[in-house]
Amino acid sequence: MDAEATIDAVRDQTETERDRLGSDKVLIAATDATLESEAVLTAAATRESGIADIFGRWAAETDSDVATQFEAAAEAAMERANRIDADAGDPDGFIDHQKTVTGTARRVGAGLVAAPLVADRFYLQVVSFFINEADERQADAFREIREEASALDHGVTALEHLSEAERETAAVAATDAIGAAYDDYAETLEAMGLDPKPIC
Length: 200
Hints:
Helices cover 76% and strands 0% of the residues. It has a single domain (3-190), classed as Heme oxygenase-like (Heme Oxygenase, Chain A, Up-down Bundle). The protein is mainly alpha-helical. The protein has helices at 3-13, 15-21, 26-30, 37-61, 66-84, 93-99, 104-132, 136-149, 153-160, 164-191. It comes from Haloarcula rubripromontorii. This is Transcription antitermination protein.
């Protein structure tokens, strides 16, 4: 299983979770039902700042070619956080999960594969929010942020530095991380009395 096949396998394993993480309820969970521009900006800044901190630490702790990919991803996330121009809040369950991940292969999966896949769904709703707010400037800004945050280039390169067995480990870790993001989302909504499952 090469790098691209590894990512495809993660996509297949997490299709349901990622679909639900891209629903319009994701911002309700992320903002504690405070659907206002400032709260949405804070949620976005929290994610990018959290990812930047974690990837930066992983880069310092990694003694392989993968360290370069963690470092580049950390710098990109911090640059996005600065562009969002909002104070970060308390980390969510996805960021908390990332803090527990150990081992280079698992970190590649949880960080450089899962994080972009989760970001793609989250920022889809951030863009939609600002479109509904008739704030085209912010909508355009978050279209760019979504494209950058969901890019899997660092993940592909990092996976190519791993053995096939390590890529399998990375795929499991990515699936677990996306599961953690979904569990946090679902538990947050359920605590509000909302059903995380889509209404058919």
